[in-house]
């Protein structure tokens, strides 16, 4: 993989549809990480002519890149069926290389790229790919990848746009993770309050159940002591 040159002159300008789409991305509600990244991938797919958009995040437990966000398309569904929505770092491939090196990648003839995974070349029959790293809070966390089944699909301006989108995704991923954590904490607190309320109700019911039994035992105790005293006095 090599460093890419600056965007050539004459490419799309900031007022092009690609950059206008950034306003749609910025207006996307931040909910869960998966829902947010799915929405971002759909926006990219609607702007860049492509067959699939993936937002991979690194799963440290499995040491794999996992497609948390994916555009809804036949190639995306095939990707899941082939198990290519999870890419172990040990298997290599261009997405892993972008994640490990932080360098962007653009190829218009993936079939001739021996550095790409065989499953992507032969299973998905990908011909064109571009990918950029995703950083969250200054830490590389994943890869944003766009692929197509035909050659020469992408231009340098598309790669620049994808880079801008990846920066936005890094910001909203952090926000979505905070939302998920806040939701989890709130749910845990709600469960704790529910458990405490349940314990209070059960304790109250037990007291109501035990009170008559305790009173009955007191009566029996008094009677037993009186009977013992009577027998003692008559013996």
The CATH class assignment of the domain at 17-179 is Alpha Beta
Instruction: State the separation between the terminal residues, measured CA to CA.
Output: 108 Å
Say how many strands there are: 6
Largest beta-sheet details? 6 strands, antiparallel
Query: What's the CATH superfamily of the domain at 17-179, by name?
Result: GAF domain
- Order of adjacent strands in the largest pleated sheet: 3-2-1-6-5-4
Quick check: average pLDDT? 83
Shape annotation? elongated
Element-level helix/strand string? HHEEHEHEHEEH
Count of individual helical segments: 6
* Low-pLDDT stretches: 2-14
The proportion of residues forming helix, as a percent range, comes to 40-55%
What would you call the structural class? alpha+beta
What does this protein structure show overall?
A six-stranded antiparallel β-sheet has the order 3-2-1-6-5-4, sandwiched between helices. Residues 2-14 have low confidence and may be disordered. The chain has helices at 17-26, 33-47, 74-81, 94-101, 118-123, 156-234, and strands at residues 52-59, 64-70, 86-88, 105-107, 128-136, 139-148. Helix content is 54%, strand content 17%. The protein is built from six helices and six strands, in the order H-H-E-E-H-E-H-E-H-E-E-H. It is elongated. Strand 5 (128-136) and strand 6 (139-148) form a beta hairpin. The protein has a domain at 17-179: GAF domain (Beta-Lactamase, 2-Layer Sandwich). It starts with 16 loop residues before the first helix and ends with a helix. By secondary structure, it is of the alpha+beta class. Helix 2 packs antiparallel against helix 6 (156-234).
